[in-house]
Amino acid sequence: MTEAPAAAAAVAPVSPGYRRYALCVLLVIYILNFLDRQIVSILAEPIKHDLHLADWQLGLMTGLAFALFYTVLGIPIARVAETGNRPRIIAAAAGAWSLFTIACGFAQNFVQLVLCRIGVGIGEAGCTPPAHSLITDYTPREKRASALAFYSLGIPLGGLFGMGLGGVIADAHGWRTAFLVAGAPGILMALIAATTLVEPRSRLAADLAARRAARPPFGEAMAEIRSKRTFWLIAFAAAIKAFIGYGAAAFLAPFFFRNHAAELTLIAGDFGLGLTGFLGITLGIVLGLTGAVGTFMGGYLADKYGARDLRAYVSIPAISTLMGIPFYIAGLLSESAVFALVMFAFPPLLNTLWYGPGYAAVQGLVRPQNRATASAVLLFLINLIGLGLGPLGVGAVSDLISGPLGLGMAEGVRWSLMIFILFGALASALFWMARKTIREEMTS
């Protein structure tokens, strides 16, 4: 397939200095995206007791309620982003999800909280597909994996700040205040994005008309995506990883609350902190910093080795995903909270290596005018399967093991997490299978 001349000619390059600035702005926005998405994980146990919720309700609130609208709206917003002003779309999305995050702090019951989380999902649907497309236009191909990995640092860093900030504020002022503080910065960043990010595509009416004419109909765009076997292998591998990752993120804090509360309370006291604040900071550092290192390294390795062999874009995720499983198991089975935290530092380092190479591969598998759509379809699967079903699944299995099987809440969450983590072997196999076709199917 060849690039449409009209669409390509309408994209102007940006200076390296401006590109660095824009990537930093987009990174901060994505950090807030994940902070607002993930802060509910550290607040889950206080919310559970305050609103008298079951684990399946926690899973629904942290996952499916958010994911349904996030995934459904992602594709139509991406279609608008193929020809529209992407910075303004990102700005509007950031403002919307931030306001709904603030609204979570005023929820009085489960239904109201779920509706607010749905609102957060609606807002966040407008962030990543246009951001991926914008970054790809800002960045030359040989640096694309690193640039997308830099943007993806928002995932572990957002989790870090969400856990740490949420835990400390919840200890001091309650979980409602934590939502209020988390939502406020996004409104400022929405204004910065709207006023300082540049749309590199021409604003001339004639060029806009040419882009719209060159944009393939949705059916044609999906036909291109459907034809790429590599895309679907990467997409389902990533969705399974998200299924594990979001499920674990939603219930790691409850796991420690239920299995290691006494030990962690003593340690927290030595630092002058409450249990929730200490656990939030600790999990944020353990999961966030190691995840940030893994995300950065994944982009660097993909650019370095992908220049020699495109199969590196999927080999790196395949190997690293498999390597993370034993560390999770060791942490879950440990009777020591400290040892468990040390073991849980390794999986984020390994499991985030896929972001840069995976997203870069997807952007390169389709023509430029279909990039936002391809990103949205990828995120549709990742979030519907991973975010939508991961926390809900872990919560439901935890309830089953805790109640009907009679093992109690502590063992219920432990063995539920154990079962889901083993799916990582399937994700690794799918990434490895993509090695067979990625070189032949790469387009741009």
TrEMBL record:
Signal peptide as annotated in the record: none
Protein name per the record: MFS transporter
Highest taxon of the lineage: Bacteria
Keyword Transmembrane helix on entry: yes
Major facilitator superfamily (MFS) profile domain segment(s): 22-439
Subcellular localization, as worded in the UniProt entry: Membrane
Keywords carried by this UniProt record: Membrane, Transmembrane, Transmembrane helix, Transport
Chain ranges passing through the membrane: 18-35, 56-77, 148-169, 175-198, 231-257, 277-300, 312-331, 337-355, 376-395, 415-434
Pfam families, sorted: MFS_1
Keyword Transmembrane: yes
Membrane-protein topology: Multi-pass membrane protein
Main location (coarse class): membrane
